[in-house]
Amino acid sequence: MKNKFLIYLVSIICICCIFQSCSTKKNTIISRNYHNLTSRYNAYFNGIESFREGIMQLENSHKDRFDIILPPFIYSNEETATSIFPQLDRAYEKGSKVITKHSIMIKGVEHNKWIDDTYLLIGMSHFYKADYLKALEAFDYIVKQFKDSPIKYQAMLWMARTYIQMENYERAQFTLDYIKENGLKKLTKKNKLSLHKTNENKRVKRNFYAVYADWYIRQGNYQPAIQLMENAISLAKKKKQKRRYVYILGQLNQKLDKLAFANHKYKWVLKMNPPYDMAFNAKMNIAQCFNPNDANESKKVKKLFLKMTKDVKNKEYLDQIYYALAQIAFKESDSTNGIDYLKLSIENSKENKAQKATSCLQLAEIYFNKRSYEDAQTYYDSTMIFLPTDHPDYEKIANKHSVLSDLVINLKTVYTEDSIQKIAKMDESQRNKVISKIIENIIIEENRKKQEELAQQQKKLQALANQQSLNSQNAGQWYFYNTNAVGAGYNEFVAKWGERKLEDNWRISNKGLTTDFSDNNETDTAQTNTLSDKKNPEIYISKLPLTEEKIEISNQKIINALYALGTIYKEGLEDNKKSIASYEELIDRFPENKYKLNVYYLLYRLYKEEKNVRKSDYYKNIILDKYPDTDYANIIRNPDYDASKNSVDKTILNIYDETYSNYKNGNFDNVIDNSKNIISKYPNSKYISHFKYLLFASQFAKNKDTVSLKAELNQLINLPITDNNIRKASNELLTLLENKAEITKYEKQNKKENEDTITGRIYFISDKSIHFAIMVFNAIDINVENVKNSLSDFNSTYFSLDNLSISNIFLDDKRQMFTVINFNNKESALKYFNALKQKWDFLQNIETNDYHIFVISSDNYKTFYKRKNIEEHFFFFEKNYLK
């Protein structure tokens, strides 16, 4: 009995000694081995497995865009990161557990060899959550704390990746160059490292060249990227990654017109059993990398593509096939077939918006270069519907589209007014025949559309019958969570309306060309309804200029449009010949038009640029003989006159800035004084119209004299020196004055703007303060427990590390408010807000659409709860948080 007790006592003492020796405060063999073993095969193992699971999910859901150079690595962004938050949060949580429980940090030295890997895991988790600042913190800690460990270079490579994602290319280059000069040499040496560390070092070398190539590719510098990708390919271990690198290398060579090299790389890709989309695009690129001077090769390629168009498997790729055929045609200088194939590409592009944008853009550029501006505008209009906002030339393309839209509007004005004047000059019988023919064509078109709609309706009914069995499987889901129902609805929408951007007036596909046959000044509802009947002959008769007064109005529209066309051709399109043609048509048709002096000078300058001395002198002499005292004459006689005038103009502009600021602030007396002073002192200044507009508007704001304002605006509109923007603003204001209902609406809008200004004083921007997420529901529509449980599930799944809590109270007797707290700042609150919108299916038990979601600072929360005005705060939220 005594022996048993003694054995038990000794066992207890031994166990205590072992546990004591496993303390993280002591660096012993037992302690190191215990914590190394426990770290690796417990928390770290679970963390790295969760991380890998998230990355695999990201890569499986990723869809490559083959119309641009593929990125070497598949990263998440703020949109896609949300879907893998649960896995990344678990990885972070397990990593934190390793550090908290198993770190043996003694005198600033870490003795657990898995702690550096754990920090790397935490940094990578932040990186894939698109939380780049926190990622940099983790990587920087590794670099500073583990200076002598090879993992330092792994962390530095991730730092470079992070800087590239942040578009901080200078810091990325500095980091990559440091690794190149220091890290690669050390990693090449044979060190006494564990198998794990040796594998990590190999991974640094394998990834370094691809990361550096990515740095060059992001900045459009393709030549240096080629050698780096060659190195990356030689070191790539996994077939999938190597195949991707080879495809990128093919794209880089193709970009630099090294077509033989590109061809070789794409054929190499095909030998590596690529997925269908990559194989298809590789074949497409092979076909485009042929030698256009080799007629036989060209013939083979075209035959291959045309054969591909008949393959059912390629139905969704027809737009790309026809695009490739177009490129072949252009290489062979066959622009006719090239244009036809581009049109087929657009026609067959159903879901690939990137390809549709590419085809539309190329066709728009072709017509633009041919100076066929109306056709160009049509395709630029389509381009803008599908072009992603992150396209490198988005702003340039948008500006060109805007210029062409203005051009087409004015061309249409001239054509329309000329047409109706021509009809007006006919005798009554001829006129009636023309109108009858127009109505007959409308009826024919209506019948055609009805037949099309009937055929479409039959297709929809058939599709609906096929869909019912699938939808029955999702019977309990809300419409927007039922992918089959959403897909059917989307197809029905596209069938009826085509592709549309989500914006105002989405029903109108070409807003630049939209015309309204009714008079813009007529707003009476009953009258509008009558005039909207396009089969009523009275519509057309009522709009014809059958009186001298109406003819004059029509002529003024033509004059304004021709002048605008000349300006657009010159300033917007740099097409001197068409600008000259517009201005000369204006002078020929309307010799005494209000722009004539300005037009004479512009024609003098245009012909001078075109080196046509005879015509340039012709218009110069008109100005000098008939308008000797004008600025134009002075500029012609004295080239330095313009420089001295510019000095005066600069002074006037400074005064205008001050005057306009007073106008915005409601200091109308100062505006009136400044405007009168400039008008009397510089009566010939080109900025006079600006001051006159401010003067008239300020006088109206003070005395509300509508009659005087209308007379003054008409006078301003008809002044030859009036700026186009001022003329446009004056016309808009005059339209408002013509209709009392519109004035009321205008006043309400001003009142709303004043209220918005007041709102800005009620709520204050505080980006770094504590924030809450707010959800407000109609109380009778929801089950409170359902909402709380759904939110709790959402928070634990996607924001498990943020220690969020939920509370709910009645905002008033009809509305229930749920508050999620606390977020450290505006940025973290917005991340939650965006994730909640993306994952709204967590609240699928809530059967209501009557709700508001927003985030609010703790300072503004008190004001909001006191005022209880959701619309008031939501305006502030949209303006300052969602801009």
SSE layout and pairing:
Elements: H1 2-21, H2 29-61, H3 85-102, E1 105-106, E2 109-110, H4 115-128, H5 132-145, H6 151-165, H7 169-188, H8 195-218, H9 222-235, H10 239-255, H11 259-270, H12 276-288, H13 295-308, H14 318-331, H15 335-347, H16 353-369, H17 373-386, H18 394-424, H19 428-472, H20 483-497, H21 525-531, H22 537-543, H23 548-572, H24 576-589, H25 596-609, H26 613-626, H27 631-637, H28 641-664, H29 668-681, H30 688-703, H31 706-718, H32 724-738, H33 740-762, E3 771-778, H34 784-798, E4 805-810, E5 815-823, H35 826-838, E6 851-857, H36 858-867, H37 870-880
Antiparallel strand pairs: 1-2, 3-5, 3-6, 4-5
Short description:
The protein is mostly helical. Helices cover 70% and strands 4% of the residues. The strands form 2 sheets. A 4-stranded antiparallel beta sheet has the order 4-5-3-6, with helices on both faces. Strands 1-2 form a two-stranded antiparallel sheet.
